[in-house]
Amino acid sequence: MAKDYTKYTVEGVGSNLNKARLVQKIVEHHASSFEGTYQAFLETWFDDLQGGKGVCKALNEIDAKNERNYYVKEPITLSDGTEIAVCNQWGKENLSNFLLHAGTLGYVITTVGDETTNESEEAPVENTTEDDIIEGSPNWKLPHALAFVIRHTMLADGEVIEGELNWMQVAFDEYDEQGIEVRDIWDHVDTMSQMYSKMGRHNTLLVNAINYLGTHLDNAQKSRFIQILMQICAQDNLIAKNEYVTLLLVANNIYDGAAYPIRQVLDNAGLTIEENEVSDEELTKTNIMYKLPEEIIKNLKDNSNLDENLFAVYKYVNKHITNDDDLEQLYLAIIEFKPDAQIVGQYAWELFEKGRVEVAISLIKNKEKYSGDDHSWKCFKSSERDILPISFTNPFKVYEAKDAANLNISINIHGRMHQVFSCTKEEDVNIDDIDDHYQNIFDWIYKIDDDNLMIIEVDGEKIFEGSLSLLELGVRDKEFGYDLSKPKRKYITPKLEKIKQIKDFCEFDSDEVWVSKENHLLLIPQGRLVVDRGIELAPNFNNRYSIINYGKYNLHTSVKVKSFAISDLFFQLDPCMDELVHEPAGGPYYIFSKIFHYEEGELELGIKSDRVMETEFKKGWLYDL
Predict the structure, then answer these.
(1) Among 314, 471, 501, 625, which has the highest number of CB atoms less than 10 A from its own CB?
(2) Cβ distance 364 to 383 under 8 Å?
(3) One domain for residues 478 and 369
(4) pLDDT score of 460
């Protein structure tokens, strides 16, 4: 890229000036006729025009290590006696803002040459562009220029409120009537603007866009455009300093002659213009006290439906929030405004997922500050289990064998259930013509339901007795592996690795595992554990059929181990079972078919007693469903 050797001439001030000397001469000229204090002078030449170093500083404010950034050997004396030095750090990006601001003060600036030519004739400081495209843009035209400046104005005070959005819609409607498609390109401009800000090109493009509007709008359109921008700035009844500067820069640079009387219009409307800079204390308060948008406050005041509250916030976030810092501030402000347990649980969880762990834990631990009904607290507790580290300890008691002995673990299951047999037959044999079905049985599994009774004993001592629903393995009590939080995923990973060491599960996709929300027991939704090996015996569908017995059963299994906890078990179900055996609407519901121990493998269930009440025959196996 060619180095920028552009020289400038300022009418009545100086000629053939480089960027830094241009700024120095204009500030010096302005100071020569300025009557006021140093602080008042800084209000005219405010720091943001330059950036971090400011346009100028008092000599006694410049330390030794920063002297090289200012013309300290050429001080300027103000009317109050303060000696100031002008900053010499200027480039294309920040100079464009200075030129615009100087223009609002009446300075006429022209260039001598530019960055790629050696022409010596004077030319106005303006875009060297094609007529229909904004210089430095990706082929942007009039709709883009309007959208870019409107967006910049809306963001000038650091927040966007409902009234500003309403005026944005007014602009969309009016330009639609003129055939200017601002609405259609808004999202594109919004996305590109964020990118240009990160690249440091936003200010240059803003200057070019304003200049472009000066040559592509007629006077009536210019006047209406300024009015729209003023309405956007006036929605909170205070014209912030950055908003006022934006209005001045736009107004003074889209008109060839006298600028639009911004100050007079604002004064006549009774609007206050923020003249002073915000103090450090006020700035701290601003960072802590996030101002909730009016549309969210209005929705949160409706106590009838928390889900609707959450959805309204979700829509707002998708439309307006672009970074996690703003999201955190928004959520904290919502919780401060409406400390309902469900809202806290939801937002603590979202912040936790985004890596805001300390904030999320703090929210969960302060639960005495929240209120809500049973449903709200259930939602809160669900997040609490996922967020607090204590929730990932073993919830079951661990039993240890003494000396060299083993623990005798006994598991009994009682109740009404189904036993499903996979059978083989000759392809041309009708099921009804078979006299002895049991000689055709290849494999069987059980459909064990949530109302069945389970008793677990360790060396004869009952450590669990109750319906299987108490194990929290039902449909409403589980989470899917692909949807687990990172901490919970980390907690179950060693268990998943052990499961994959079992031959039947070596190819199991761990994202498909089901995990109990309450106690982290694992359920593997994979069928056909043995039946796959039966395909050789029954290669075709007509070789297969099933016998389904229903009745009262007492199933039993046992294992000897050195130590035991219920968390040492995991369970397997066949996801096709509900296609083979239809469940009544009100339950009971299928829970599992097989029990496994992480170290010992499958704990085969045997029948201690049974009383079959119904038998049904069906073509095919679970495999075929």
Answers:
(1) 471
(2) yes
(3) no
(4) 94
Which among 87, 66, 86, 64 is positioned nearest to 77, based on CA atoms? 86
In a domain, 234, yes or no: yes
The one-letter amino acid code at 126 reads E
- 442: in domain: yes
Q: In terms of domains, do 461 and 567 share one?
A: yes
Give the tens place of pLDDT for each residue, 239-251: 887 788 788 778 8
Q: What is the DSSP string of 76-119?
A: EE-TTS-EEEEB----HHHHHHHHHHHHHTT--EEEES-SS---
- Cα–Cα dist 339/343, whole Å: 7
Q: What share of the chain is helix, strand, coil (3-state, %, to 5)?
A: 45, 20, 30
Is residue 343 within 8 A of residue 311, CB to CB? The reply is no
Indicate if 223 and 240 belong to the same structural domain: yes
The structural domain count of the chain equals 4
Domain match, 160 and 120 both: no
Q: Are residues 68 and 89 in the same domain?
A: yes
Question: CA-CA distance, 254 to 257, in Å (whole number)?
Answer: 9
Exposure string for 510-532, b = 16+ CB within 10 A, e = fewer: beebbbbebbbbbbbbbbbbebe
pTM here is: 0.43
Q: Which helix (H) or strand (E) holds 386?
A: helix 374-387
Q: What is the pLDDT of residue 392?
A: 57
- Within-domain flag for 457: yes
Cα→Cα distances 314→251, 308, 325, 346, 356, Å: 37, 10, 16, 11, 18
pLDDT digit string, tens, across residues 184-232 = 899 888 888 887 776 656 777 887 888 889 889 888 888 889 889 989 9
Task: Mark whether 442 and 554 lie in a shared domain.
Answer: yes
Q: Token pair for residue 439?
A: 């000689």
> Which residue, among 449, 450, 423, has the nearest Cα to 434 in the 3D structure?
423
Alpha-carbon separation of residue 357 from 362, 427, 467 (angstroms):
9, 61, 37
- What would the mean pLDDT of 330-335 be, rounded to a whole number? 85
Residue numbers of the domain that contains 350: 285-392
